Amino acid sequence: MYFQLQNLEKHSSVLESARDELLAMLAETISLALEDGKKGILRIDTYDAKRPREFINEEQEGIMMEWAKYLSRRSLGKHPELFGTIDEAQRVTKNTWQILSEELGDGDPNENHVFVYAKLLKEVGCSLPDPGSRDFIKPSFLAAMDDERSWKAVVAQLLISLLPLEFLPEVLGFNLHYELVSLEAMTAARELKDLGVDPSYFLLHICIGNADSGHTAMALMNVIDYLETIKETGCKRTIDEQ
């Protein structure tokens, strides 16, 4: 399905099952999240405009506390925790319109995040075929990319992009999740630099995704604006369900 979604002009028949497949993936994700207890954003039982911001602040505070601990360990001479060598780096490194524009480099191909990430992969010796090509799903490459969750995640993103109006709340939620600056991104930026590898991809995301004025803040405001609009139109039941 991944290849078909990447090449819709030749595989338009996949659109017939796109909605059902996406709903199944979303249902599976919610089910797994509920099994793990009310963690992450599921801690918000009922909506009000303050809770999403409080949630983001709590998440960022937790990440910064872990980051401080990490820096302390490194200052004491502890070893890198994500990338010990270049080989490990290769293995592990696998307003909405404004966010999209900036992700695409604002018209500058050299700032396009996909291009920057491809440069990083090439620098650590990981040359992959074009993601939209049939070579990308050849068995020789699939053997090295056997994490089923990663494939499900990318297929879900491709599917949801086909139905943005019907799944607008999910689109906004996806965006907020992926814009959050993670401890792993901060650690990767530090350790790749230590290895002499250009950490621009991760530095770019850390800077542009910050929760004060960057993509995280913008994505959060998109979520709040949407929910406030729903609230003002009297669709409280819709908010609770979503």
TrEMBL record:
Pfam families referenced in this protein's UniProt entry, alphabetically: Haem_oxygenas_2 (PF14518)
InterPro entries to which the protein is assigned, alphabetical: Haem_Oase-like_multi-hlx
Protein name listed in UniProt: Uncharacterized protein
